[in-house]
Write a structure and sequence with these properties.
69 residues; 17% strand; alpha+beta; single chain; two-stranded antiparallel ribbon
């Protein structure tokens, strides 16, 4: 399940946490929201960011070939 969580602090800062989205596509999902919120001060990628979607792993394994001696 894809989840966007926002914590709004009394000083106006907003902390955004994205879960359930694999790979860098989370940046696409949050780009419009971040543009409306204002300046992004920092970003921290989670382990889900560095996880490859399953279909890419399958494509890579299908491309492996063995040389014939």
């Amino acid at each position: 399940m894809e989840t966007l969580e926002f914590i709004i602090y009394p000083d106006g800062r907003v902390q955004e946490k994205v879960t359930g989205i694999v790979g860098a596509s989370c940046a696409e999902v949050t780009a419009a929201i971040e543009a409306q919120l204002g300046q992004v001060v920092s970003q921290e990628q989670t382990s889900e960011y560095f996880t490859q979607p399953i279909n890419q792993l399958l494509d890579a394994s299908n491309q492996i070939t063995f040389s014939e001696w």
